[in-house]
Amino acid sequence: MSRPSGRLGWRPGRPHEQAERNPEDGQVALLILAYCIITFLLVTVVVSLTAIHIARTRLVNLADAAALDAADSLENPTYYGAGGSGGGAGGGAGQGSGPTAGVVPLSDATVRASVHDYLATAPVNPALENLTIGDPTGALASDAAQVTLVALVRPPLVTYVLATWGGGITIHVTSQAVATRHQG
Asked: Does residue 119 form part of some domain?
């Protein structure tokens, strides 16, 4: 069998009529490349959204705990009254009758101080950057506290993309807690 000279695409064992190049050769490689890119982008989005959701859940848990701590906080002048002794002649909380009898009232300052103290001692996830106390944080009623926390989250795999728009995603969460009186 002699080899035809000058023919590109000639393969031994095949008739030279079928040796012409197929215009669809290599198309499967492009499809595989496109599907790999789409899969990579999809995985990146899912991982980033999951990281943001987990950080938000941790921030909500922290805000819930801070609100519970704030609802149980005492405002010393109100509790001890002008006389300086709890429940004495100074007219401290828990005296009298009515809807707030026996309830130590909360103030905005007491709630903010309690949240600040709680955040100083509580373990905070390092994924929550620039953690701050947001507005509205304070007393909703004489026995209810509202806490708003704000944090910056930098999701993995897309940090370089988000660097253009501030470096991360800011998350705001608000939690409320009500102090209840237990009869002992």
From this structure: yes
pLDDT tens digits, 60-70: 999 999 999 99
- The DSSP result for 126-168, as a single string, is TTSEEEEEEEEEEEEETTEEEEEEEEEE--TT-HHHHGGGTSS
pTM of the predicted structure, to 2 decimals = 0.71
Question: What mean pLDDT do residues 113-133 have?
Answer: 94
Q: Is 91 contained in some domain? A: yes
Residue-number span of the structural domain to which 165 is assigned:
27-178
Nearby residues of 147 by Cβ (< 8 Å), 6 or more positions away: 63, 66, 67, 70, 111, 115, 133, 137, 174, 175, 176, 177
Phi-psi region of 16 (alpha: psi -120 to 50; beta: other; left: phi over 0): alpha
Helices (H) and strands (E) in the chain, counts: 4, 3
* Total domains, the chain: 1
Q: Does a structural domain hold residue 15?
A: no
- What's the Cα-to-Cα distance from 135 to each of 108, 110, 126, rounded to whole Å? 11, 15, 22
- pLDDT value at residue 162: 79
Quickly tell me which residue has 């429940």 as its tokens.
87
* pLDDT tens readout for residues 91-109: 444 444 444 555 667 889 9
Residue 181 DSSP code? P
Which H or E element spans position 16?
none
Is 4 among the domain residues? no
